[in-house]
Amino acid sequence: MSTFLENQNWRYATKKYDSSKKISVEDLDFLKEAVRLSASSYGLQLYKVIVVESDEMKAQLIKAAFGQTQITDASHIFVFAAQTNVGAIEVDAYIKNISETRGIPTEALNGFSELMNGAIKGMSDEAQTVWTAKQTYLALGNLLNAAAELNIDATPMEGFNAVKFNEILGLDKLNLNATVIAPVGYRHTEDDTQHYVKVRKSHEDLFITI
């Protein structure tokens, strides 16, 4: 029987990590692959994921995360950064990838290419920024679920200065904008919140069946 729901009950937004425990290379590769396989609009994956393991870099980032110790104590930090100024170049690269992966002539994908280009061109700059940012949250969800499968702790965080993160990681020079981050590692025995009973809405309050 699937342990998915059991693992979802086990996980929580970890407040204090054990800095002495590190994620193995094998488990880190599993998490990365889960993120890579995430759903995204059209399949475009208009974002990059920066995985921070350097203690020196963490020490810089904590200043831009309001001193939250998850940044320095967690094993790794996943930084999800949405692409900015998206257009035909990204669509063409995706079409090429589809063609090579599935053995389909690019000409056969012209309709799909035109659909995506038309949708993107029809967006305002603000709408495009919101759209690409939303895609990073889909990838974040996969990371959280995959981490729970391995009993690895994770903390989704919006409490950070994106401008400073962009500067420190050089994201602004790559046309990227940090949207959400997730420290991952192992909970500290002193983190009392791990013992709290999970609080969620009831089925009656959450679902509407029509």
Automatic annotation (TrEMBL):
Pfam families linked: Nitroreductase
Family matches, as InterPro entries: NfsB-like, Nitroreductase, Nitroreductase-like
Domain Nitroreductase residues, every copy: 10-186
Keyword set, alphabetical order: NADP, Oxidoreductase
Family, as annotated: Belongs to the nitroreductase family.
Name by which UniProt lists this protein: NAD(P)H-dependent oxidoreductase
Organism of derivation: Flavobacterium frigidarium
Biological classification of the source: Bacteria, Pseudomonadati, Bacteroidota, Flavobacteriia, Flavobacteriales
